Amino acid sequence: MVLSVKLDNFEGPLDLLLHLIDKNKLNIYDIPIVVVTKQYLEHMRHMEVGQMEVMSEFIEMAAILINIKSKMLLPKYEEDEEEDEDPRAVLVEKLLEYRKYKMISMDLKERHNQADKILFKEASIPEEVKNYTQAPDTSALLESIDFGKLYQVFQSVLKRNEDKMDVVRSHFGDIKKEAFTVQEKIEQLLNLRENYSSLSFADLLDNLSTKVEMIVTFLAVLELMKMGSIRVIQTEVFDDLIIRFV
After folding, report:
1. Helix (H, G, I), strand (E, B) or coil at 54
2. Closest Cα partner for 2 from 43, 54, 78?
3. Can you tell me whether residue 196 is helix, strand or coil?
4. What are the CA-CA distances from residue 98 to residues 14, 18, 27, 34 (Å)?
5. How does strand 198-200 pair with strand 230-233?
6. 33: buried, middle or exposed (CB in 10 Å: 19+, 13-18, 0-12)?
7. Which terminus in the chain has less CB density within 10 A, N or C?
8. Cα gap 110→102, rounded to integer Å
9. Is the backbone of residue 187 left (phi > 0), alpha (psi -120 to 50) or beta?
10. Could you tell me the maximum CA-CA distance found in the chain, to the nearest angstrom?
11. Per-residue pLDDT tens for 222-236?
């Protein structure tokens, strides 16, 4: 079992060194080793003699500081300046590591003290948020559609309907049909979604009898594409268009 002994409010030699650095507002990356060593030894003189294991750690650090101090006092030659490593580098690394774990332990202690003040609530989402669906990006839906090709398919369907027309009977007279609206055609197309996941654009127009109804249906298809309710796919150039319900 490891026994933690605190001397003069310092957990160990690294804790004492950090205290001296913070107290004197020193740069941890450029420690004035002479000043720190002097103050460190002064603190050790005022410590009460405790357990040998703990005191030995402080004495060992004092020896390290004195060793670093002596190395820094030695004269340096120009050719050795670039090759020699800063004798404080290892100590700085240890201090930074110790400070990191000290801050983590303080944070964990604070969280532990505040734990009994925290209440957790089960997630609850309002219905209007739960049922929200993002509006489709119409620009993305229409990005792959070539409206020139779509118009060509529309024209070819009109041409086929003209070819099927009875020339003789077509001159019997004008027969008025009911007017069609785009909204009505949109509703009719959406009703097809119950029985079909996709359908042919050409077949859709083939079942219509007049140009007016075809044009209104064509406009309804465009409107549904903008709404994001359908996708129009063309696998080959000049090929038929496939309408898929979203």
Report:
1. helix
2. 54
3. coil
4. 7, 9, 16, 22
5. unpaired
6. buried
7. N
8. 12
9. alpha
10. 124
11. 888 888 888 888 777
Predicted pLDDT of residue 7:
47
The one-letter amino acid code at 16 reads L
Using CB atoms within 10 Å of the CB of residue 220, give its burial: 0 to 12 exposed, 13 to 18 middle, 19+ buried. buried
CB count, 10 Å around CB of 202? 16
175-190: pLDDT as tens digits: 555 577 888 888 888 8
Which residues are CB-contacts of 199 (< 8 A; sequence separation ≥ 6)? 192, 242, 243
DSSP 26: -
Comparing 23-37, 173-187, 202-216, the range with the smallest average pLDDT is: 173-187
From the number of C-beta atoms within 10 Å of its C-beta (0-12, 13-18, 19+), residue 149 rates as middle
Whether 31 and 88 have beta carbons less than 8 Å apart is answered as: yes
Higher pLDDT, 237 or 242: 242
Stated as kind and residue range, the H or E segment containing 242 is strand 242-245
pTM of the entire structure?
Answer: 0.38
Integer CA distances (angstroms), 242 to 31, 195, 204, 220, 238, in order? 76, 16, 10, 15, 12
Alpha-carbon distance of 63 to 106, in angstroms, equals 29
Take residue 141 and report the two structure tokens written for it.
């839906």
Q: Rounded to whole angstroms, how far apart are CA atoms 88 and 86?
A: 5
Please name every residue paired with 202 in a beta bridge, in sequence order, or none if there are none.
none
DSSP 120-136: -------HHHHT--PPP
Give me the chain's average pLDDT, please: 78
CB 209 within 8 A of CB 216: no
3-class secondary-structure state, position 59: helix
